[in-house]
Amino acid sequence: MTKTVIVGTNHAGIAAANTLLDNFEDQEVVMIDRNNNLSYLGCGTALWVGRQIDSYEGLFYTKREDFEAKGAKIFMETTVESIDYDQKEVRCLSKNGDSFVETYDKLILATGSVPISPKVPGRDLGNIHFLKRFQDGQAVDELLNTDDVANVAVIGAGYIGVEIAEAAKRRGKNVLLFDAMERSLPSYYDKWFTDDMDAVLKEHEIDLHFGELAMEYKGSGKVESIVTDKGEYKVDLVINAIGFLPNNDLAKDHLELFKNGAYLVDRHQQTSDPDVYAVGDCATIYSNALQDTTYIALATNAVRSGIVAGYNVGGVGLESTGVQGSNGISIFGLHMVSTGLSVEAAGKHGVAVKYTDFEDLQRPGFMKKNANVKIRIVYEEDTRRVVGAQLSSTEDISGVIHMFSLAIEEQVTIDKLKLLDIFFLPHFNQPYNYITMAALSAE
């Protein structure tokens, strides 16, 4: 028997455990997590807090009993205090104070990420929260239920920040959205798209404070105001959504790290220690758009990395195909999806690109049900391979991004898309499809 210890039981750890338990009979699997719940879909927090779904129960997709039924040993509310990599020992502390050691043949680190905490005065005041775990969502949800909370400040206009700003607004609160950047969602979308998102946020009376840096929180016991480099604002609740850093506490002194502190792994999820694998938000990932190692913290990437690690630990040499970082967001009815590199992101990574834009109705003009669609295809200047795509509409255009994700993985050129066989039916699309038209208009 091979004994595998998995530290961390959210998406990546769960995927690794299921892969080992479902496919390999010679595996003894031990799962350890300091939380009291597992498998929480944090991407649904804003939907629940904003009352767009009825309850949070459906955001948990598995439970400890499911793993115990497959023969796994699972320790919840248990902290891994240290790991002796020479002796292959994981030293643990349970909730009731009992210390114990688990030995391993193979170790999978699935310790995820930790929220970035702004180092500003007043950060220890009450009513200042992050949104990461289920308990964080519960705390924010309960505060939004009270009349004491009228003004909500959200720090950070990335995905989580924009989503929770919408949720708080749907709960009838006055919402102030802050970001040091000049627009929302700058990591995933170019300005042509985020201008529309910013307009939608304004239209729904979210008070935008872009290009402002939080300097201090003031209050007595709990937060009462936020001070930025441009002013002071009365607030009753602060939600920090600045971003995340890889949680590397357990092995930062033992394993080779990426520039942001993530565990550096190969295409098999193996670290610089051949008996240690790392998966999910604590590890690097291979980008097909960059054709290089990078860091992209997404639940979909976490699941794929867990599967890859599980097979390799089990003895099947499965190599990751790499990722594109495909993602999407839907705020007040505006849907935006992207994959690969935006023009701005390509510039930051030193990739010379060109892009082609097109804007049109989803269906022929005579159709009653219709909406505008914007598309941008980003392609490398010298090879002409597609390295990114972005779309937005009040229509559900999300399915299109899967094709672009595959195009990036397969190194399809922009020219290949010019005469792509795309069907036409007025119920669905235009005879001159916006994908075709964007490709045809490329330089």
From TrEMBL:
Pfam families: Pyr_redox_2, Pyr_redox_dim. It catalyses: 2 NADH + O2 + 2 H(+) = 2 NAD(+) + 2 H2O. It is an enzyme of class 1 (oxidoreductase). Its cofactor is FAD. Residues 334-429 form the Pyridine nucleotide-disulphide oxidoreductase dimerisation domain. Keywords: FAD, Flavoprotein, NAD, Oxidation, Oxidoreductase, Redox-active center. Its EC number is 1.6.3.4. The keyword Signal does not apply. This is NADH oxidase.
